[in-house]
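@channel sequence for tomorrow's demo:
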Amino acid sequence: MKNSSRRGFMGKAFGAVAGVGAVAALYAMKKTWDPLPSVKAAGFTTLDMSAYKENELVTEKWRGKPIFVLKYTPEMMSQLTEKQKGRTISVGGSDYMVTLGLCTHLGCIPSYNADEKGFLCACHGGTYDFTGDVTKLPPPRGLDIPPFKIEGNTLVLGEVGPEYSQMKETGITL
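structure tokens (generated this afternoon):
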């Protein structure tokens, strides 16, 4: 510090205070952009898969959207094609259909007919089979499968597990 004048010291002190203020302002901005803990908690839904009954559609809620959960009967499993088996989620020795309950055409909520084992979207007459695959147009693709992770006998919606990653790689879901 050859030039140790008062003006030089004041410049360095001001620079240090401005740097600390800038870092504090950036930290405060980042904290306001982070989601609240309540919002983060709403991003995950845990489903106990042992509570579901065969061929009985249950509508759960995840991120404000309906989630269809359908436990397959042995008869339903025997009717599945290889393509349909790819949409099946196996948890605790039972097989399930877990999809977003929104038609992929216009976002209507399809209704399930347990006798016919299929879904009907009343908006434009599109139908899906019991696996959520399209059987009658206009829906462009099957019902979407939400991100999930299997932990023992529970299904955690909102987390990506290896089973979901494999479905995504093979093009079964978006």
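heads up for whoever presents: The chain has a mean pLDDT of 92.
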